[in-house]
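pasting for the record
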Amino acid sequence: MGETKSSTPEQILVTVITVVLNGDEHLEQTILSVLGQSYGNVEYIIIDGGSTDTTPDIIKKYEERIDYWVSEPDKGIYDAMNKGIALASGELIGLLNAGDYYEKNAVAAAVFTCQNHAVSGIYFGHTYIIQDDLGLRYKYPARTDHWRGMGFCHPAMFAHRQVYQKVGRYNLAYRLAADYDFILRALSKKVEFIPIDTLLVNYRNTGLSANNLAGSLREIRIINRSHFGYFSCEHLKFLASFTKSMVLIALQPVLRKLVGEKTLLKLKSLYTRMFLSRGREL
């Protein structure tokens, strides 16, 4: 394990938490992106859910530079995040899942923005989305129209530790979208959201929610309804977007049978590139 760290007048301490379960394919890239940050005062915590692949071996390879890690069963990704938050000593806390990786100056950008605003809020920036199946990497700009969903990718968020004290941690009743519930609870508690106008993270669109997109959207719908209400403008607008997404998801198995997997991927790539060429958000 690494040395005990703390904030100094010159450099606040930032905690980065990585949660992982059988993520050995890209975990090393994730770890190296944290250890290679241009900002020096970083506490790194890894919570492994009891992996049976080579994940523990990869962590052990770098354990002298990792401040704390554990490998044990948990109740899911958000339970693992909550464990990491409980252990965190930093003033800012970032959550970087296995498979995702930071840009080199991500933590420095978060610290710079935090020091300039001096607000115990949520700091968020832009993201590169990596679609390995489509061979695409594209920019996803952060938004604040939270009726749509998160508005920004969870790994592109750094929350002040006081935010977790005020809002609480992630609600384990939600298996796929507890981060969205957390954002809406923060809004209801009048937590300030401060943008970081730079690209912070590379997000592989292959995680738990991405692999169960329909289930994730249904959970987001429940969360949206519980916060905004059945007949609010926000929820009705969300339902229009939700319906379009569910139709597209339902069409995929039909298209797969008609044209095959290879052609379906080409169609998905074409659709994605069409939206990107128009400067539209997906």
